[in-house]
């Protein structure tokens, strides 16, 4: 995008062009962070003007009063999966855990402890609006 490619023409990516574009901005990057705590510290200390961060890390700072704002314009969702290896000796217990962990009420409870978006959309029916609006998977943001 920084090199002038329109969003509908990004894929398949021209990897050489991607790295050439990164080479153009590299001298202007103060720090490439390598851990979530590092980006959180950089935001907290106000040593960056703009940053890419995990939602949870940025939201914790915002909740602490840091002058930080999340912009989800052109954001991409990242997906994680629960996997049960074939032949697992504890497959039934794993299935029960996954069923439990993906319940709307369990995900809603977790979101109130740590601000990550639930994968079960019904969790939003159980969340206070103030909490729900912070989460990256809020129905309005998914649109």
Overview of the molecule:
It contains 7 helices and no strands. The chain is globular. It has 2 domains: 7-63, no CATH class; 91-142, no CATH class. It is mainly α and 143 residues long.
Short description:
This protein is mainly alpha-helical and 143 residues long.
Task: Please describe the topology of this protein.
Blueprint: H1 15-25, H2 36-44, H3 55-63, H4 91-101, H5 104-113, H6 129-132, H7 139-142
Features:
single chain; 143 residues; mainly alpha; 2 domains; 7 helices; 41% helix
| DSSP E strands, number | 0
| Poorly predicted spans | none
Task: Work out the helix count.
Answer: 7
Name the assembly state.
single chain
Number of domains: 2
Principal-axes geometry comes out as: globular
Instruction: Report the structural category.
Output: mainly alpha
Q: Report the radius of gyration as a whole number of Å.
A: 19 Å
């Amino acid at each position: 995008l920084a090199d002038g490619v329109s969003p509908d023409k990004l894929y398949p990516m021209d990897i050489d062009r991607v790295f050439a574009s990164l080479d153009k901005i590299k001298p202007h990057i103060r720090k490439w962070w390598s851990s979530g705590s590092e980006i959180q510290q950089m935001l907290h200390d106000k040593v960056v003007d703009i940053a890419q961060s995990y939602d949870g890390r940025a939201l914790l700072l915002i909740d602490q009063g840091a002058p930080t704002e999340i912009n989800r314009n052109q954001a991409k969702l990242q997906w994680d999966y629960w996997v049960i290896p074939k032949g697992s000796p504890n497959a039934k217990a794993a299935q029960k855990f996954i069923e439990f962990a993906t319940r709307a009420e369990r995900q809603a409870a977790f979101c109130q402890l740590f601000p990550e978006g639930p994968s079960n959309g019904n969790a939003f029916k159980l969340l206070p609006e103030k909490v729900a609006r912070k989460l990256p998977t809020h129905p309005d943001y998914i649109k």
